[in-house]
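During the reporting period the student researcher (J.K.) took over the structure-prediction task from the postdoctoral fellow and processed the backlog of single-chain submissions. One of the processed entries is reproduced below for the supervisory committee.
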Amino acid sequence: MKTILPQEVQAKLQAGEALNLIDVREVDEVQAGHIPGITHIPLGLFEFKMNELDKNKSYIMVCRSGGRSGQATAFLDSHGFNVTNMVGGMLEWAGDVE
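J.K. obtained the following structure tokens:
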């Protein structure tokens, strides 16, 4: 499984890179603070929502600590998606939140 650190994601965003970030946390967690520009798909809805994703794009999965995003990364990877887990999750995120 491919992984990326929160600091690397922040550096890419600050450099102006367009990233496809998917936050797999629950609604209340996302409302409490999330990385600007994320797509929100709760982990429990992944099997129903994955057909909305593009296999030609790369995605970075985000959750609170990296556990649920790791599950989502493994799931999407097994279905042929180019996906990376942000290890440490929002607990280690020091960038902007909205």
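The committee noted the following: The chain has one domain: 2-92.
J.K. will present the remaining backlog at the next meeting.
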